[in-house]
Amino acid sequence: MSEAKIALVTGANKGIGYEIARGLGGTGATVLVGARHRGRGTAAAEKLAAEGIRAVPLELDVTDPVSVSAAAATVEREHGRLDVLVNNAGVLLERGQRPSQTPVALLERTYATNVYAVVLVTNALLPLIRRAASGRIVNVSSGLGSLGITSDPTGPYAAFPLLAYNSSKSALNAVTVSYANELRDTRIKVNAADPGYCATDLNGHAGPRTPEQGAIVAVRLATLPDDGPTARFFSEDGAEPW
Ligand SMILES: NC(=O)c1ccc[n+]([C@@H]2O[C@H](COP(=O)([O-])OP(=O)(O)OC[C@H]3O[C@@H](n4cnc5c(N)ncnc54)[C@H](OP(=O)(O)O)[C@@H]3O)[C@@H](O)[C@H]2O)c1
After folding, report:
1. Residues enclosing ligand 1, CB less than 6 A?
2. Cα 90 to Cα 141: distance, rounded to the nearest angstrom
3. Closest ligand 1 atom to Cα of 169
4. Nearest to 3 by CA among 132, 137, 189
5. Which numbered atom of ligand 1 lies nearest the CA of 113?
6. Tens-place pLDDT, residues 163-187
7. Each residue of 30-50: pLDDT tens digit?
8. Residue 133 C-alpha to ligand 1 middle, in angstroms?
9. Long-range CB contacts (within 8 A, 24+) of 199-207
10. Domain covering 6-239 assigned CATH 3.40.50.720 in the classification
């Protein structure tokens, strides 16, 4: 096995995913820059490489089973294993609808990326993660997926009742715990990360934090030591309520 860790970040061509790739690259990992559009992935990887990071574009539409299995085959052929998987790609499709105005089709489209695709990608790559010495899976969730936080009427997110997005991230938290429990007897750790409210295309650059700040917790969870936690949900400041 080569010394450098092999890390794949989905949706790494921009926003928080790009900064997670940058942060992992900064630790010396070879970063596979997952992007559904080849040109965007190549441009991001070139930008990272200009900073001295070993970055390789990987075409990957997380919702497309053909694209996912082709990407897994590429990782196996080129690297033989995967040390880190960061499931970062995500969508927020609400445009001001209240829960009572939300069409089920909008939930379906949201879940396709934020929940089902995470399962698709994780299942495809898990055989390669099992070959790593200390596999790490990080699911990029959100404080908006925390029932503990959003159910508090005085809390910061009570004013954001995004039915599809919030519940997709709650489901992602449950997905995280399910994998962590299945893998508890292995060296693989599975955790969920809350980047905080960051200015990205996802929210029209409304968040007060930078994507770089948002990446910190995911990078930390992707590089946990072997005695680190699994089945947990963290922000940069520490444990978050589910
Ligand atoms: N921004 C925040 O305040 C915030 C807070 C909490 C959690 N998050 C989470 O952080 C993650 C990153 O979001 P962001 O804020 O950085 O948003 P962003 O700038 O919109 O980036 C989203 C990324 O996901 C990619 N993506 C979407 N659908 C995809 C698909 N089917 N296949 C592959 N890639 C796909 C996008 O690719 P394209 O460029 O091709 O569209 C893009 O690279 C998301 O999971 C989001 O829910 C964000």
Report:
1. 10-11, 13-17, 36-37, 40, 60-63, 88-91, 113, 140, 142, 195, 197-198, 200-203, 207, 211
2. 9
3. 47
4. 132
5. 31
6. 999 999 999 999 999 999 999 999 9
7. 999 999 999 999 999 999 999
8. 29
9. 200/14, 200/15, 200/16, 201/14, 201/15, 202/15, 202/90, 202/91, 202/92, 203/92
10. yes
Residue 165 is among the residues annotated as catalytic for this protein: yes
pLDDT surpassing 50 at residue 1: no
Active-site residue, from 157, 165, 179, 197: 165
Give, as one character, the DSSP assignment of residue 40: H
Whether 18 is catalytic = no
Tell the burial category of 169 from Cβ atoms under 10 Å away from its Cβ (0-12, 13-18, 19+). Answer: buried
What pLDDT, on a 0 to 100 scale, did the predictor assign at position 3?
A: 77
User: How far is the C-alpha of 6 from the C-alpha of 71, rounded, in Å?
Assistant: 14
Q: Which of 5, 18, 169, 179 is catalytic?
A: 169
Distance 12 CA to ligand 1 centre (A): 8
What's the sign of the alpha-carbon dihedral 70, 22, 220, 111?
negative
CA 90 to chain centre: 8
In tens, the pLDDT along 135-145 reads 999 999 999 99
